[in-house]
C-alpha cells in the first residue's frame, strides 16, 4: 500500500468524515496533525487513493451477469453493497456502482466526477474489493464523452434513439426505399445492394428461433435503425480516440423508442455493429410491453417471455454480448423470466428507485419535508415528464396537506405517486436536496436497510436461477 495506512474518521470539530493517511502521503492534500495527514473526501484525494488501491478503480466487466445501481443523491452505495452481500454472497453479479446518465447529471447539476467520487469513498468505507464498473449512461453525442473519460468510467451506453425512425414501422415500401437512399452510407461503409446480398433470402436458425429476411424486412430494419447505427459508429469512434488504448465496455441502447425491436431488427443491429468492429458488450432493445419509471412491468407476461426467448436466441447466435434491460427497477414480475431465459447474459439497469427509497425515509422521519417535496413534484410534473413514457395520472396524487403523517409512506407504494415523484427528481433534489441529504446523514441506517431489502428483491431471482 505504498508504505501508508489509510482510514476514515470523523472530525472532532464538525463530525465530517475525513481520510486519515499515515506514512507516505504523496499526492494527497489535507492538514498535517502529528504523524497523520487529515484529508477531505474530495475528488483529488479520491483519485490519489484509486491510484494506490487498485480495487477502488472501476474496470470493464465484459459479459458477466451485471446490475447497474444509479445513485442520484450520492449516498446510496452502502445500501447497494449491503444488498449484494446479503442476496449474492458468492459474488455472481458484477455491480456498476457509479452510474448516471447525461440527462440525470444535467437535471441535478452534477458532474461525472462527482458521481465517481461519491462511489469511491463509499466503496472504500465498505471495504469492497470485488470488480465493479462505472457507466456513462445514455450518451447521445460525442461531446458528452470527455468528462466521463476524464473521470475514469469504464462502461459507455450509447443512446442513438433520437435517430431511430419510428414511422418506418408502418411506412409503405416507396417511402422506405426513399428513406434508405438518403442514409449516410459513407459512415455505414456499405451499400443497399450489398446489404440485399447479405440478408435477402437468408434464413438464420438460432436455437429454436428461425429468422427469414426478405426485402421488406430488410427495408424496414434499415430505414428504422440505419441512422441510429451510423450515429453509434460515430460516437464509438470518438470514444476509441478519447480512451486511446484503454479497454472499455460498450452498450447500444434503443429502448427509448415508440415501437418494440423485433428479433429481425435485433439481428440486423447486432450484425451491422459487429461488421463495423464495434466492441459490443450489451444491447438494450425496446422490448414488448411497457417499461415505465418506478413501477412493475406492464404487459402480457406470456408475450414478453415469447419475445424474450427470440431475443435471447439472437444474442446467443453472436455469443459476444448480453441483453440489457433499461428502466429495470421494480420489474419484479419479469425478473424470474429474465433469469430463466437469459441466465447469466443479462444486465439490469436501475436509477430512480434508490432515490424513491430516500423519499421513503423522509416520509417516515420528516413528514413536513416530504410534503414539501411532494408539492414540488406536483407543481413541476408537467414540465419534467416530457422525456418519459408514463401512464401516471397526477390528479390521483392527493395534495400533501390532505394527508395524515401516517399516510405519507403509503404514497411510495402507489402507482401514480411513485411515477410523479420519480420523474420530478431534478426539481425535487434541486430544491430540497440539501435538506434530504442532511436527513439521510442523520438516519443512515434507515436508508441502508431500506435499500438492502429493496434491492435484495431485485437480485434474488437472478442468483437463485
Automatic annotation (TrEMBL):
Catalyzed reactions per annotation: keto-D-tagaturonate = keto-D-fructuronate
Keyword Isomerase appears in the UniProt entry: yes
Major enzyme class: isomerase
Binding site for a divalent metal cation: 138, 293, 326
Keyword Metal-binding listed: yes
Active site positions, chain numbering: 137, 251
Function comment: Catalyzes the epimerization of D-tagaturonate (D-TagA) to D-fructuronate (D-FruA).
This protein's name: Tagaturonate/fructuronate epimerase
Organism: Caldilinea aerophila (strain DSM 14535 / JCM 11387 / NBRC 104270 / STL-6-O1)
